Amino acid sequence: MSKFIIECPVCHRYAEARTGFFASKRIPCACGHVINVRTERMTSRACPSCGNTVVYDQAEGREAKCPVCQAQLVTDESLKNIVHFRCGTCGCSLQADKSAAGVVCPVCDAVQDVQAQVKLQTERDAGVPSVIRYEGDNRTCVWKHPNTDFVTGSQLIVHESQEAIFFRNGEALDSFGAGRYTLETGVMPKMNSVFPLPVQGQPFHAEVYFVNMTTQLGIKWGTNSKVGLFDPATGMHVELGASGSFNLRVTDARRLVLRVVGTSDGLTTDQLFGGDTGYVRTLVMNRVKSNLARVIKDNRISVLELDERIDQISAALKAAINPDLAEYGLTMPEFYVTNIVTPDDDPNFRRMKQQYADQYLRVREEEIRKAEAEAAFERKAVEAQTAARMKIIGAQGDADVTRIKAQAEAEAYRMQAEAEAQEMRMKGYTYQQETARQVGLEAMRSGGAAGVTGFAGDMMQMGMGLSAMGSIIGMTREAVSPVMQQAGSIGGWDCSCGQKGVTSNFCPNCGSRKPEPKTGWDCSCGQKGVTSNFCPNCGSRKPEPPALWDCACGQKGISSNFCPNCGSRKPEPRADWDCACGQKGITSNFCPACGHKKGE
Question: Is the entire prediction scored with pTM above 0.85?
Answer without folding.
Answer: no
